[in-house]
Amino acid sequence: MDFNDTPEEAAFRAEARSWLDANADLKKAGDAAADVLGERATPEIVKQAQAWQKKKADGGWACLTWPKEYGGRGVTPIQNVIWNQEESRYNTPPNIFGIGLGMCGPTILTHGNEEQKKRWIPEMMTGQKIWCQLFSEPSAGSDLAGLRSTAVRDGDDWIVNGQKIWTTGAHFCEWGILVVRSDPNAAKHAGLTYFVVDMNSPGVEIRPITQINGGQGFNEVFFTDVRIPDSQRLDAVGNGWQVALTTLMNERASIGGGSGADFGELINLAKSVEINGRPALEDSAVRQQIARFYTRSKGVAMTGNRTLSALSQGKTPGPESSLGKLVGAKNAQDMAAFAMELQGAAGMTLDPNETPAQGEWQGRYLGIPGLRIAGGTDEILRNIISERVLGLPPESRADKGIAFKDIPTGPPSR
Ligand SMILES: Cc1cc2nc3c(=O)[nH]c(=O)nc-3n(C[C@H](O)[C@H](O)[C@H](O)COP(=O)(O)OP(=O)(O)OC[C@H]3O[C@@H](n4cnc5c(N)ncnc54)[C@H](O)[C@@H]3O)c2cc1C
């Protein structure tokens, strides 16, 4: 592994830094932390985020890996990582475009026809239209192919009925990617079709879900006789699972190991709070626990570097990159719990005025369990590692080769 930039990478980093210096301010202590679940996205924040995305697009710094013909820059994945590293040092509005740019865009570029790419990609790239992902249902999450929302052909349209859930950002999005069952007589994975849906269509009802920390990042979305023109179907009828796999591969890559754990902040906290009249950092048990977090954080970072090295050499990172999210998110959650313990009684409140670090650790403690579920739960990631990295036998599949309507199950959700 070589951690140094090549001369080309160093030149690209310098160019990125110089543009960022001219257009944004460096982060400083006390700036708001990343809003990973989009829960603080008020209309004003959405506007600020859109303005920043437009500025990046105008400056040639949006969607860097996308082909030049669709407004991207056609750079290598490692150059994109360099840009992300540099941008993260600046105080910019929350990134509410992760689903659109990280998942919907790459899926449309792979499976869309020319007309669809021209219709949706430019407004997505400039942030003027925001996108959400309508995949999960009350009885289909990890087992996504078990979904039950339906699409029935009616002339040039499809009529969609059903319910989606956990739809991040649906309340401020104009477009969504949607997988539904178009043929209940086909086997589970074969009867699905993939659409793009206008979230303002008649019959779409969005109900926010309140999270444990009081935020509202995701929603239930109900479809009642929603008409979707056939021109908004991506790829062939019945090929929805293949298209969804493209989205999910991009989802895993974009969620990656980002857990928000900042080791330096934990050290600062341990210096600033006291145990028995001395800074907590001088307590041997505290130091031992911090050392444990440090070794795990370093292990995750080094594993991440393997992915970066693979990217730098033009290779595609393998399923072992699941380790980053699996270990990193758990480590971040444990660190947040420990930080709250260090704060003593103040650790029990969410009030930013009453807690050291303005309630940042409490916010993380309540938010990180979501990261351990979204984009593949811990158990699903373990399954991936056991089957695809360690080569263990796959899970048994009792529903294989049976028409979906004949799979024994409970009553449908609606
Ligand atoms: C913050 C957040 C944002 C999200 N945003 C979106 C979004 O924008 N769009 C969207 O479509 N979805 C979204 N989701 C939903 C997410 O994709 C699902 O929650 C996830 O796939 C898990 O599905 P589930 O919640 O139905 O749990 P289930 O799949 O029902 O799992 C329940 C439990 O069973 C375990 N389990 C399930 N299957 C297996 C197995 N085969 N082996 C071992 N254990 C298993 C799971 O690990 C889990 O512990 C979001 C979720 C979160 C938390």
State the shape.
Answer: globular
Rg estimate, integer Å: 23 Å
**Strand-residue proportion:** 5-15%
Low-confidence stretches: none
N-to-C series of helices and strands:
HHHHHEEEEEEEEHHEEHHHH
* Most strands sheet: 4 strands, mixed
Can you describe what's shown?
This protein is 41% helix and 13% strand. The protein has 414 residues and is α+β, with helices and mostly antiparallel strands. The chain has a four-stranded mixed β-sheet. It has a four-stranded antiparallel β-sheet with strand order 2-3-7-6, with no helix packed on it. β9 (274-275) and β10 (278-279) form a beta hairpin. The longest helix is centred in the last third of the chain and has 29 residues, at 284-312. The model has no long low-confidence stretch (mean pLDDT 90). Residues 37, 99, 132-136, 141-142, 166-168, 218, 370, 373-374, 377, 379-380, 383, 395 line the site of flavin-adenine dinucleotide (FAD).
Quickly list its features.
alpha+beta; Butyryl-Coa Dehydrogenase, subunit A, domain 1; 11 helices; 3 domains; four-stranded antiparallel beta sheet; four-stranded mixed beta sheet; Butyryl-CoA Dehydrogenase, subunit A, domain 3; 414 residues; binds flavin-adenine dinucleotide
Structure at a glance:
The protein is of the alpha+beta class and 414 residues long.
Topology:
Blueprint: H1 7-23, H2 43-59, H3 77-87, H4 98-111, H5 114-125, E1 131-134, E2 150-154, E3 157-165, E4 175-181, E5 192-198, E6 204-208, E7 219-229, E8 233-234, H6 240-255, H7 263-272, E9 274-275, E10 278-279, H8 284-312, H9 322-342, H10 360-371, H11 378-389
Parallel strand pairs: 1-4
Antiparallel strand pairs: 2-3, 3-7, 4-5, 5-8, 6-7, 9-10
Bound molecules: flavin-adenine dinucleotide.
Flavin-adenine dinucleotide binds next to strand 1 and helix 11.
